[in-house]
């Protein structure tokens, strides 16, 4: 089950998500994840990237951030965007699309 989130409403949608995974693509085309705090200012997500993340962004700036909800069973927020690395080494992600997503059916209990 998915609910589109207008980028203009992203600040409200991000409120319950204290952190997210910044997903970049390495040179071998495998995904790399970096857990970062949520920091949205003036419509731009800001994060501190490491050397590998910043190199990935320089080569492939299209990224996804995944914000798992802190409470089980709630929606995960997924944000797509274009990122750049500032001269100070900070990541600035400009969101282009966002969606709240969760499985339509609850998973069966383990056991």
Number of separate strands: 8
CATH topology: Pnp Oxidase, Chain A
Give the strand content.
Answer: over 45%
Helix content: 10-25%
Number of domains: 1
Calculate the mean pLDDT score and round it: 92
CATH level-four homologous superfamily name: Electron Transport, Fmn-binding Protein, Chain A
In DSSP terms, counting alpha (H) and pi (I) runs of 4 or more, how many helices?
2
The residue ranges in which pLDDT falls below 50 over 5 or more consecutive positions are none
Q: Helix- and strand-based class?
A: mainly beta
**CATH domain class:** Mainly Beta
Name of the CATH architecture: Roll
Q: Report the biggest beta sheet as strand number plus sense, adding barrel if it closes.
A: 8 strands, antiparallel
Coarse shape: globular
Quote the distance from N terminus to C terminus.
25 Å
Q: Care to describe what's here?
A:
There is one protein chain. This protein has helices at residues 10-14, 51-59, and strands at 2-5, 19-25, 31-37, 40-41, 44-48, 62-67, 76-85, 90-101. The chain has a single domain, classed as Electron Transport, Fmn-binding Protein, Chain A (Pnp Oxidase, Chain A), CATH 2.30.110.10. The model has no long low-confidence stretch (mean pLDDT 92). Strands 1, 2, 3, 4, 5, 6, 7 and 8 form an eight-stranded antiparallel β-sheet that branches. It is mainly beta and 111 residues long.
Quick take:
By secondary structure, the protein is mainly β.
Ordered list of secondary-structure elements with their pairings:
Blueprint: E1 2-5, H1 10-14, E2 19-25, E3 31-37, E4 40-41, E5 44-48, H2 51-59, E6 62-67, E7 76-85, E8 90-101
Antiparallel strand pairs: 1-8, 2-3, 2-6, 4-5, 5-8, 6-7, 7-8
